[in-house]
Amino acid sequence: MTSPQNQVLGTETIKSIEKVLKEHNVQKYSMKISEGSEKGQNFTSIVVQVDIDGCDNQNNKVHKSFIIKTGPFDEEIRKQVKIQDFFIREIYIYTKLFREYELLQKEKCITNIFKSYPECYACTLQTSEESIVLQNLKLSGYKHWNRKTPIDANHAFLIMKEYGRLHALSYAIRDQKFSVFEDIIDNTKPTWSEYLSKGDTREFCENCVNQALKSLDPVKDVMVYNKFKNFATNVHEIISKCVNVSGSDQYSVFAHVDSSLSNQMFQYEDIDNPNKPTSISLFDWQMSSMSSPTIDLSIIILSSTDKNLRHEHYNDMIKQYYISLCSMMKELGTNAEQMLPFTVLEQHLKKYSIAGLYISTMLILIQYMNYEDIPNTMEDRTLNFKLHDVEQYNIRMRDVILDFDKYVMAPFQEQILSSEATKAFDDILKAQGVTNYCIKIRALGSEQGQNSAALVYQVDVNGHDNTGNNVHKSFIIKSAPLNNEIRNVSHIRDAFIREIYVYSQVLCEFDSMQEEKCIINPFKSYPEYYKSTSQPFEEFIILQNLKLCGYKHYNCDMPVDLDHAVMVMRNYGRLHALSYALRDQKLHIFEQIIKNTHDDCFQNFQKHDVRAFCKDRIEQALKSLDPIKEKPAYQKFQEFSENMFEILPKCVDSKLTDKHAVIIHGDCSLSNFMFKYEDFENAHKPTAMRFLDWQLTRLGSPAVDLTTFLFSSTDKKLRDLHYDDLINEYYNSLCSMLEQLGTDPMKMLPFSILQQHLKKYGIFGLFMAALLVFVKSNKKFSIRDILHDTKQLCFKLIHSEGARHFTTTVHVSRVKVYRNHKDSEESFEETDGISEELDLERDASEQPEAAGAIYVEELIPREHKRMKKVPKYLSDFELD
């Protein structure tokens, strides 16, 4: 051996090469050493290509070529970085782990085995002379992709497929040979975050992250900028938590970790498509460790693809990985759904992909560094780098960060537009005469507690009409989550089938009836419906984007004012009127609607976790009451808390709500209303509104809608002043609409029946309000006020002086409270601020029914005047 060779390769390494050549019967050879990798590909080792020209036993010429990976000789570097540990790990992987993978595949008679790594011929762990002798893949036609150029779809899918097969072997070993798996765990503990957080390496990594931050516009990208800035500030703490996933974690796998393009080579053997890769080989396993499988995936997707590919195929890449993983595990005899359910993969993508973003900041920056500044090993690590194309770097890096936020940090990694949804949009746009269009999709932010049963996206379309003019359209698509746990707990499929039925059938019947009756101002307080599908796991509804028509959400953290409350109550009156009219005039259609909106929302109460959730919220509400100062209300609500799972189903059981039940909205939270403002003299006064979210629509008492809204969306002051007025607004609106539709209001819902329903079924509204207010967690909303108001206001008789169906010959200006005493005048007392006498005749035979009950005079025509018991205290709720 020559002196220069000894300077590059240590004595032990040369001995290893000689041993390999002897095994291959190579004699009388010469050795040529050249660089084996590009600058910037290896930071913890020196890689050289060794070409051998010699003769075999028959004196025939022989050419051999190897890749030799050695540790750096510099003692300072070796003190800073545990070089030998990296080589111990990689040698273990080549000599032990991969052999276990090969053995398992042989045992299972796998036809297309996973062997996507170079052959290892020899290795040594001699201190300061660590080396690995590997196959030179170039001789087999493998090539590097230009790592400065993002990969195309063919390369991306092949990479994802092979990583699926790699991870499948890890899961199968865990499942079938756990003792072997434990040995793998012991020898591949995560260490790379420690390596990246020390000395000059730490500073280099921090510079990469800070440089990436500069690619974002702090104004245009303000939300993402602030998130990434927080990440940059706490990068080492965050990454440490992401990568230190122990082997004891149920879903951890043996991961490549250093899954950059520089550690992948491709073979092209398709003569008809020479640019399409047919196989891949992975190398550089020094950072490999037990980890989440999504570490590999996120590094590949974020560092190696561009914005266009991610936009078109992000979900396809994830699916390709998972299909390959499941297929390989099935061949190996392991249940993929048990080892890595798709829902867990989604969760891991969200939780651990930040590590992929972190690595991508380094990989992309190196691609745009001036060649002389690129660090090759730890020996020449430089911190004063310069970028040769800052503009292109900023574009690429910004796209990566924004896409990370868009695709990874979304609540669930699901295909936003399935093939069914895409076809639906094609049909809609074709019908509207839109051609040559492009679609932009963005997730709509929601407050805590909103859209728990759906994913909501805004779909913007830019295209041309038939005359070539620019056209802009905007839609809302509401799609079902794929997460099985959520689907099962929330009965997602049933909810979508119900809502699709409401939009496609129920509201259409309402429209038809109004057309038949020539209603001048028809009820259309809902978004326009375009398309939907109830196909399992692809459920979606495409609706009008009301924002384009000037509709806005009210600030859900604030209680509504009187104008908004009146608007809501009037619209509920009109909605319920249509239901009553349909029941009165087209009973067969009404019965069909009942059949298709059968109430099942309380089947969830059979589930332990749902019961625990609701009970916890109601117990929190109970704590808002003073058990001494507010003893009656406290005791009654405590009774409700203890028995609510028996009480509540009775409130929504359509069989118990009798002939006065209607098709109710069901989900009457403020987040499901949008308002329009077109009064220029009073810009804050709504002129129109729309109801959203019909997934809980069902047959029920009208009181459920009313009380849910009033106690979840108004404050104490408004209820004190206007509770009665708001009930009047509802009832007047109901009666007016029914008369226009040709149905007698007194037949369908007499005012006295409404009062009874408020008493009997209003507890459900209180329950819903307690849940909604708890979710809002806003000081402006007091759950204590709500419970207190059920004592003072909720079921007080309505002072309906303007009620339409009442005669004007009777008016009520005073209310008298009676207790069970013969002499009612002596028993008069002031209660809750109501201290005026009621000045009108009373039948002496009518006496109060129970001690302590509150009675007020009902405003009805004089000929039907009678005393009625109505609930005014929480203690008057019917809980049986």
Automatic annotation (TrEMBL):
**Gene3D superfamilies listed in its UniProt record:** 3.90.1200.10
The domain of life is Eukaryota
Checking SMART domains in the record gives: CHK
Q: Where is this region: Disordered?
A: 823-849
- Cite the record's Acidic residues compositional bias ranges: 826-840
Q: Which Pfam families does this one have?
A: EcKL
Q: Where is the CHK kinase-like domain?
A: 132-331, 541-740
What name goes with this protein? CHK kinase-like domain-containing protein
Q: What is the lineage of its organism?
A: Eukaryota, Metazoa, Ecdysozoa, Arthropoda, Hexapoda
